[in-house]
Every structure is written in structure tokens, then in C-alpha cells.
Design brief:
alpha+beta, 2 domains, five-stranded antiparallel β-sheet, 28% helix
Length: 467
Amino acid sequence: MNYQIELLHSLLNDFLVGESSLMTLDGDVLAVRGQMPVTYGTLTTAATTAAKYLKLQEGDIALLNDPYSGGSLLSEMTFVMAVSEDLLWVTRRALDTKVTLVKSVEEEGLRIPPMPLRQKNQVNEMFLTAMQAHPACPPNFVEWLKEQVQDLSLRAQKLIEAIEFTGFTITGELIEDYLGLCKQAATQKISESASGEARVDVVLDSGELLRLNLEIHDGKISVDFSGTSAAKTVSLTESATYGTCFHAISRHYGFTDLANSGSFSILQITKPSGCWLVGKYPAPIYKGMTCGVAALQSAVELALAQIHHKQETSLSSHCALHFDLRSGDKHYLLRLPGGEAAQADRDGSCATLNPFSLEQLERDFPVKVLRVDQRQSIGGKGKFNGGRGLILKLQMREEAEATWLTDLTLHRPRLLKNCSHGDPCEVLVEHGDAAKHLPVLGQQKFAKQDVLTLCSGSGGGYGRSEQ
């Protein structure tokens, strides 16, 4: 790459933190960065939708969380800002998330289509007042939004200053060259590996069938979901489906840091209308954005492993265990991630819990924490073991309620002969002398002295054990 292209790539990496993207008003995606798979499809859709309907001018900021306009979960706010005459910055920031098992996206919370949050350097107080009056509006939402507007403005100004400091202009020719090189790099990485095709079926516990046909030829990848069933209770948006597929593929080949219009062009997806991967309003989205995404990740990874026999890997536990504890008007979402898969040359990484205060949890809720540790895995064994999941054990000090959601692919897909499945997520309740496993998702009250054991999934193992 020449100096200007290297400078542009470095500038994008420095500026884009968290779930974010930078693109032109003409629709060219310069870069997407983020940890969440759906980010790679939804952010650009959000920007395109907002720019189409709101005609953003420099300094204007649009807000949305509507999944059918490029959002993800309703608790995650997407901001689209015109940082200059021809550049759009899209970033996503999360609020307090709640587990919702309902029949409509409108029941999941406050749904916000693209709306003008700031215009001509003025925050749109009329829209803020209207949102605040909505019964599903999160607490302190307006104050939080105003804080985000200030932060976005400061960071956008730093981007403009960084561009001016470098002394170069982001021209159409520079963008074209940069996107072309990214496409060439992605194509080369794919071409260096094997070509071929594979088919994978994944059945969700909720009844949906995911049928994936993946073909690799001449450095390009086509994914065909013909045969995938309609939604029953799990639904995913079209942009989230694309983002998840691209994220899984780019991670496999190692070009996630080149995610833009150039590398996007190597992937073609065919989705039959009416299938659960092309959800339509008002279908609920929470299960799709969690369990549905995890199933799709697993299917893509398994198809790639079938084609690239020298790069075989087992399956990671992509779906975290979500346990939403409620007492009175308070709630706390416990999120236990799963372990990673073993590979042909190493063990998988064990899951780690994001830091949180056990003392605060016990103060705010009628629970006593008995154990927090890595679970002792039964599955995922082999020459190289899958990473272990987590175990959290709680005892109820008073009656409380919880809503939970775990992996919806307990009907495990067929693996390659060298691989084994890890342990699934589990929720166990002990009431007196009786103990029972709870279903993969549900909501119920728990009595005083009940003991709950929450286990996230472990990664799959690789190879035959030598013991």
C-alpha cells in the first residue's frame, strides 16, 4: 500500500472503537469495527436508512434502535452522525439490557425508527419529550442521550482534526484504491485455501431449520439458505444475517480489520423470502439476535471446516447464558459466556466473566452467591480440550423472579470425525430435596431457599484423547 492508503487505514483503526463504522454519503463503506457479529451488516444499513429519510447535514445526528431499520437489540442505540459534508460515522452504544420473551418487537421495549436527534447544532427537545413520555422509555434516557451527543461531537471533531493534521484529503480516487486493495487482500486470503462446497443443517429447539449451502470458488464465497424454514419464535433481520455471515468468514480467513465495501464484495448471500433469516416487522428480535446469531455462526464455521480439512476446528459455545433476575422494580442481567472450541493444535480458551460486584448483587437482590467458577466439563474432550464454560450458583433469600435464555441448538449438528461437542448451557433448580433441569428458556418465580445453578456451554474438543 502507498503512504496515503496506509495513513487512511491507520486513521480508521485509531478512530473506530467499539461497534462503529465510517462510510461516505454515496454509500461506500470505508470500515466497520466491532465485536458483535451483527455489527458488520446492521450499522451500514442504519446509516443508509437514516441518510435516505433525514437528509443529514454536517454535524447532524440521527438516532435509531429499530431492528428493521438497521438496529439490533432495542437496548442498543445506534447513532448516525454526519461528521463532514461527505462522511457518515455510525456507532452503537448499549443501555441496560433485559431478557424479553414476547410475541412482538413492540413488546420488547421502546422502538425508535430513524429520528433527528440533533439538527443545526440543536438537540431535538420535541422528540426527547415524546420518547420520555413512552411507558417503555428507559430511566434517565434523555440525560443519557444528551451525554452521548456531547461525546459524539467531541470525537467527531478529533477525527476532523486528525484528517487536517495529516495534510491529505480523502478523495474519491483514494477511497476507490483503498477499497480495491482490501478486496484484493480478502480474495487472496480465500484463494490461498481450498475451494469447494459444503452443506450444513442446524435445527433450533424452537423448531426452525437453518439450511446452509456454502461454496468457495476463485476467491469468492456464496452462501445459499434455500430450504431454511419460516420463523416460529426466532427471527433475524436481513442485515443481521449478512453481518453474522461476513464476520464468521472474515474471522476464519483473517481479514476482519479490512471490513468494508471492498471485502464485502467477495460474499454473496441468497435468502428465500419468508425464512426466519429475513424477519419482517413486527416479529420479536431478542431470540434472533442472541440464539439465532449463535446458530448461524456455528453453521458457517462448520461449513468452512468441512471444506478446509487442514484447518478443522470444533464448535465454540457462541450463545451466552442470559439470566435476568428480578426483585420488585429492580432487575440484573447475568450474562455467562461460553468456552471456545479446541483446534487442531491447541486447547480452546475458557470463558471469563465480565467483572461485576458480588457484594452489590447481594445487596440489591435477595440472593446469596454460593459459587462462581469454571464448570467441570464432561463434553468437549479430546487430544485438545474445548474451553470450559462458567458456573454460577445462587441461593434465594426471598422469593424472586427470573427470565432466562440459553442456547437453542441442543439438537447438535453433525461434526467432523475429529471433533466432539462441548457441554450445552444448563439451568438447574434445587427445591428442598428435589432437583430438576429447567428448559432452555423460560420465566418463573423461585421460592426462598431455592438454589439455582447456571452453567454456560463449553467449547468442543478436537482429536482422540491419548489417555
